[in-house]
Specification:
about 120 residues, mainly beta, four-stranded antiparallel sheet
Length: about 120
């Protein structure tokens, strides 16, 4: 089993920055795809950053490209997401997700999910 614990959410004014962390424990050697998703009330869940843990390749949707950065510290089994130039529309619950094997992309099945951390951006 794998456990994911997010931290770093909070409230910030528009234009500000936040850094989220996702610490993985358990059978982490199985994981090769880590991602961040978000879901705002009344909206569908959206993938906002993903990283292939083996190659380091990253991918972002246009809505956050240039503002969000995902990175990993393999020694700490932790994935980070730096969010800059935050906008009110970034307000959502953010979830860390992980999967092992196969292709790393937002539409795949992610086996493990964190409990979520709230990000609120005020105008």
């Amino acid at each position: 089993q794998v456990q994911l614990v997010e931290s770093g959410g909070g409230s910030v004014q528009a234009g500000g920055s936040l850094r989220l962390s996702c610490a993985a424990s358990g059978y982490t050697y199985r994981l090769n795809c880590m991602a961040w998703f978000r879901q705002a009330p009344g909206k569908q869940r959206e993938g906002v950053a993903r990283i292939n843990s083996d190659s380091g390749n990253t991918n972002y949707p246009d809505s956050v490209k240039g503002r969000f950065t995902i990175s990993q510290d393999n020694a700490k089994n932790t994935v980070y997401r730096q969010m800059n130039s935050l906008k009110p529309e970034d307000t959502a619950m953010y979830y860390c997700a992980a999967a092992g094997g196969g292709v790393c992309y937002f539409g795949r099945v992610f086996d493990y999910w964190g409990q979520g951390t709230q990000v609120t951006v005020s105008s």
